[in-house]
Amino acid sequence: MSVTSPTAAGSREPGGVDQAAFTALVAPLRRELHAHCYRMLGSVHDADDALQDTLLRAWRGLPGFQGRGSLRSWLYTVATRVCLDAVAGRARRPLPVDLGPASPHAVPDSRPDRDVAWLEPYPDAGLAAVPVAPDARYEQRESVELAFVAAVQHLPGNQRAALLLFDVLGYSAAEIAAMMSTSTTSVNSALARARRVLAARLPAVTQQRTLRALDDARLREIVVRYATALEDGDAEALVALLTEDVTWSMPPMPHWYRGIGAVLDFARSGPLGPCGSWRHLPVGANGQPALAAYLRRTGSGPYLPWSITVLTLRDGRIAELTSFLDVDQFAAFGLPAELPPGPGQAGPPDGDPTGTRA
């Protein structure tokens, strides 16, 4: 998740803006701007591009800014407009649960759907420590939770912008109207519609509230027990961690599963089956506990990246497993490209941990 300097081609542009001075000026805001772009677009890679475009436009337009108002507000204006341009005419980024009903049993012939631009996870390491604005409804980590970002993707661009600028960043309707070149009435209307959509889609309790109710030892225990269950191929140990209505989805696989029976049927045919041996590294994603899974298909050799699984918890159990089967995400999380050989239960090299034949 790196964004290069917008001025790599030269040190000065219109108005004689110095590259080093501009870079130092915007450096404290880069991480929070990147997170804003992610909330708008649902993709780390798209957020990288949007931030790059934002900084380029801002650098070129800095002479016209002339210190009128807040630099932070001006950069958010530029970033929001960049994201609105990107959203226009583009399909939203979904999760499998958004596209169809759950499968009651493992689907052996499922294929990854590469035609869908799926929602992507966001590394916690990229989150800036931004104080909650007095009028904001959501804290920073709440506003990158999977459920929140997935719900935002159901909004048209103007509603996304109004909601994020008002309820996450704490700008007033008048300020947002100026940022979006529209009227306060239009902003308030977009905000009301966006809030209705989110109210229908978000759980009653955020993950941040759920995590605060768990002490560190209990949270660590859940994560370790989940990883151990997969590494040991232990179905009973896995089931003991799950809620009765647990869901498991694996973008870009279109099929997903709901309930202990369906999830266990899938798990036995896939990750708990004869696919190889697993190792896991704990990571933080979307303000939630997550694990990077590495798979070794044969009895020797390194473990290679397979998925990043984000855990959604409820009442001390796992209510949702969202496994992102995109190994390109590992670089964004700063994860190693492989893990050295170690203890594990190797299985036949032709097994498939998704329970599919990809």
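The record above closes out task 2.4. Task 2.5 opens with a second protein, given below.
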Amino acid sequence: MVKIPQIRKWNQPVTNERSYSSHLVGTSETTRATSFDSKETRFNQWLAGLIDGDGSLQVSKAGYSSCEITVALVDERMLRIIQNKLGGSIKPRSGVRAIHLVNRINGYIRHSSRLVQLNRVCTVLGFELLSPDVLHNQHGWFAGFFDADGTIGYYLKGPYLQPQLTLSVTNKLYVDVAHFITYFGGAIYFDKAQNDNLASFIEYTKLCPPQSIKRNRLFLIKKYYRLLELKAHKAPEGTVLHKAWFEFNRK
């Protein structure tokens, strides 16, 4: 399930990206002063996972702190969800607006680089940096990190070109993706011998659904297996099954 390359996957051009950005404001009295219900807590966990994968927490030379999340243009909807809850702005790599954010993500950020950034922000704002909470198989962080650094697709395997479904999470450091192996199994990718691992992650997404365009492919997994059982990928050209497989691959 987890890929660990020398460099991070997906380097989208700036022109095909949207960024959410905001100034972070607050006082030490606001640190973890707000209590959240289970639904909001799951959102906060998801947001922390997304920032761990696709965000940055910055402190300017003038001492101003900010957060920026940059995603592909097709995932602008995901940024709108954040904007509707927290304010901020969505523009091509620019724009700021004052919001409270640290209070939501402090204690859920766990990416090694992002923790260093969050510590700087907390220092400027007078917050105490909280250690990452304990992950579990219903934690929203996994969905957020998958939105940022996950992929879902298939490749043709072996001499018979059998379609092989894969879910993967890519990041530069092993420590930042090892959590997926701990809670969902897998190694490099899911294959036929690891369908139980795949099923456990799919079951997890029913409770903590990803919000990026990748969720559309997750919805297609049942259809993928149904077409595979019917051997649609081997159906002669011009048949109904061949057309069904062709249309599936266009989605």
